[in-house]
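Re: beginner question about structure tokens

> Can someone show what the tokenized structure looks like for a real chain? I only ever see the sequence side.

Sure, here's an example I had lying around. Input first:
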Amino acid sequence: MKEIKLIRLFRTFSKEEWKELEKFAASPCFNKGRNYMPLLKELKKYAPEFDSAKLTKENLYKKIFIGKPYKETVINTVLSGLYGLSEEFLIYLQLKNLPERPTMLIRELTGRKLFKEAEKIIDSTGLTKPEKYVSATSFQSAASIAKEILEHYTLTDKRHLIPGMLDTMYRFYILNFITHTITNKNIMFLNRKFVKKSDNFLIDEISNVVDFPKIIEIIENSHELEAIDLLAKYYNYAADSTGDIKYYYKLKNLREKYYDEVSLYLKTILNISLVNICLKQISEGNIQFRKEFRDVYISILKNNHYFNNIKKPVFSNKLFKAIITNGIYFNEIPWAENFLKEYLDKLEPEYRENLYNFSMALIKFKQKKYDESLLFTGKIEQKQIIFKLDAKNITSKIYYETGSHENLLALLDTYKQMILNNAVKNEVIGKSHLVFIEFLKKIVLADNNETEDIKNDIRKTKVLNSREWLLEKITELEK
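And the corresponding structure tokens:
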């Protein structure tokens, strides 16, 4: 019962959605004369987890069909009907917030010759005043609205307005095309290991004939404000694919110019893009981006925009971990401890304990309180491979700092085997730990003639965990 599709669906509902669903289910317009309210009210008692042992078909049947003998087919039919109604509710939610709503209204009102009413909707879209328009999440929707406005202008003999709106329509069609092309290029780039040389993708053919830098330059010079999400995606992609940090500064400038003017969705896009570029640069040894990253997350925290996306307003685990690590790098221990206290409960519950123990282990390690650091490392639950790697990484560094080289070499072997035996979803993370292990072994076994070569190799290596610490340790051997 706990794992039937209806229950899996209901686990995703927010409190607001439950309220809306009850109204939806009570409406004869949607329930087709079937009363699902008794079942819905009973199921709601088990929300949001729906993990009670009392949640059985038999118990639901007793509450709904009081005094009647239990019939499996009847309860199955009712549950199935409620699931169907819930699917219709999901469609209703989408239609309710559909960006194309103005398109439908303009079309219907114009078709009924209710021109004044249609013009009120046209004015509300902002498309007739482009200088005040900030892009929506979908350029396709804006283009569709412009198309209906053109039809309205034709029927109402406002032909003098047609050229401007025609330009607006095609502008959004073009922006939509470019946005999707950049998104697809980025997906292809991130999944390039699965692409064969013989593969002939349409996206590659298009990319070969489209001068994206020139198009982006045109957009920057003429329609920057309404194309912020497009520009953010392009700068993020270009920074990742070319390694050129100029795109980071373009993105940063875009954020500084328009942050107060754009939607929460666009704020999230800008923040995530800046964070991703900073973390990539830091992982590749570009230390100046430690300060850049600090500026970014201080702003994010100040504005309370630290979540993964606007639909799930919880602290991003990746961002939380990176902030703690960065704060400790700058030896801002009191700040890191205050951050931990203030934001820990904003994480998803399942990650809080591990991220707390990880953070405290790092703090104690920075303070050279190695026994305390080991205690926190030992409390890190080993269910998830990423936390297993974190625990092994910190323990390895503690063994090195305390001169326990025999224990360290044995640990590094089990650390390496653990990575090889487990499928690490993010191969870059797995590789960064493997390279760390190899370098730490070299440092432990190095003589004076090898230290310079090891240092240079550490600096040149693209993907490497704990790069700064390894450089610090190899430098100490040279003294």
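Each token stands for a local structural state, so reading them left to right follows the chain. Strands lie at 307-309, 312-315.
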